[in-house]
């Protein structure tokens, strides 16, 4: 096996290991923009601008990735979103 092939194999292996999970927030017809924005600030440590942009994307596109990271970090954050009445899941 050549050095180039070995390096490519190592990079692909590291990509698989470093794959991060993400919280996907879904649109609904119940929650207000203010509620979604405030919840994203609280649960996902968004800035007000980030939270507003995510809420607009969710409204018009139907969903938006609002946070990426390890499952261990995302699980309590997703739980906070769900407890606040938002529709979200970890992928």
From TrEMBL:
What is the protein name stated in its UniProt record?
ATP-dependent Clp protease adaptor protein ClpS
Report the GO molecular function annotations: peptidase activity
Whether Hydrolase counts among this entry's keywords is: yes
Q: Which SUPFAM superfamilies match?
A: ClpS-like (SSF54736)
Q: Which domain of life is it from?
A: Bacteria
Respond yes or no to whether keyword Hydrolase is given for this record.
Answer: yes
Keywords, in A-Z order:
Hydrolase, Protease
Query: What positions does the domain Adaptor protein ClpS core occupy?
Result: 21-83
Q: Name one GO biological process term.
A: protein catabolic process
């Amino acid at each position: 096996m050549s050095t180039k092939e070995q390096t490519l194999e190592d990079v692909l292996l590291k990509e698989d290991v470093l794959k991060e999970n993400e919280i996907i927030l879904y649109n609904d017809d119940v929650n207000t923009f203010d509620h979604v924005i405030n919840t994203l600030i609280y649960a996902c440590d968004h800035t007000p601008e980030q939270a507003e942009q995510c809420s607009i994307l969710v409204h018009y596109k139907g969903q938006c990735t609002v946070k990426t990271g390890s499952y261990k970090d995302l699980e309590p954050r997703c739980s906070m979103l769900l407890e606040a009445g938002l529709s979200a899941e970890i992928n």
